[in-house]
């Protein structure tokens, strides 16, 4: 397995969480960090004992002692800096969503292909033992044939986050920020049930509460997925809801009261899946994660860097999810 020297583009909350994860990883080291201001870069570097701090992203990309770059900028900047990182010969882990639209993602993937570098969208929850156990239960027929999925990821953001997430120029909105987890999970269930990779819905409908600038504060969506599975999705950045996953089958149901994407489960610890057979008693399945999600993510990149894609988070998977998000945002009237 390759040990990777990481450079971080941006110094926000998610960059801090990833930096802490790299510190706990087995095959990654923090080599450099870049911010638009020298002071922020220096402060971040001091906090995480990173040897190099740059006051421009360009300078970090020019550093020959950086192997891989974590793009943690606002959504609207992902495309530019993922492409520029690839063109600098750096392997790329980019925060979700990879880009604002599927068409933009095609450009990033093309850059990775042309420059022969690793590229992956950072859906860390897909690598969590809870998610992998959920897939196993579906694949082994624990609830019979899957019929329906219900997924919610929604929160009420603070003033600073609300300003960023409400800005259409920055790719704001609940669908892109957290609804992407909902579509990813629903599609994963369909893939586990049918054995078809990178599935896409045959139909997408939805409604949302939109701001004056056309950004979705919260939204709901309905998908019809391969396997004749119906998925109900709910997301938002200005509405607190109970995050959960429910999967209904012909002989039972699965319930995840705390999905692997919530903050509490980003650290090592125990999570649960509740399996309830039709007419039977609930069985609480405990799943232990011995490694934090970001440490696991960094090691996953190191393990698959020679493959140029993550086997569970392929380029085809990223494009399928973004095309679904494109259709959901269109359905709710985003930008109107």
Topology (SSEs and partners):
Layout: E1 4-9, H1 13-24, E2 28-34, H2 38-48, E3 52-54, H3 57-61, E4 68-71, H4 78-87, E5 91-95, H5 102-114, E6 119-122, H6 129-139, E7 146-154, H7 159-165, H8 174-194, E8 203-210, E9 216-225, E10 229-236, E11 244-249, E12 252-256, E13 269-277, E14 283-289, H9 293-304, H10 315-332
Parallel strand pairs: 1-2, 1-4, 2-3, 4-5, 5-6, 7-10
Antiparallel strand pairs: 7-11, 8-9, 9-10, 11-12, 12-13, 13-14
Helix pairs in contact: 1-9, 4-5, 5-10, 6-8, 8-10
How would you portray this structure in words?
- It is a single chain.
- Helix content is 36%, strand content 27%.
- It has 336 residues and is of the alpha/beta class.
- It has 10 helices and 14 strands.
- The chain folds into 2 domains: 119 residues, Rossmann fold (3-Layer(aba) Sandwich); 208 residues, Dihydrodipicolinate Reductase, domain 2 (2-Layer Sandwich), CATH 3.30.360.
- The strands form 2 sheets. Strands 8-9-10-7-11-12-13-14 form an 8-stranded mixed beta sheet.
Major sheet characteristics:
8 strands, mixed
CATH superfamily of the largest domain: Dihydrodipicolinate Reductase, domain 2
Order of H and E elements = EHEHEHEHEHEHEHHEEEEEEEHH
Work out the strand percent.
Answer: 25-35%
Number of domains: 2
Radius of gyration: 19 Å
* Number of H/I helices: 10
Number of strands: 14
Coarse shape: globular
Outline of the structure:
The chain contains ten helices and 14 strands. By secondary structure, it is an alpha/beta fold.
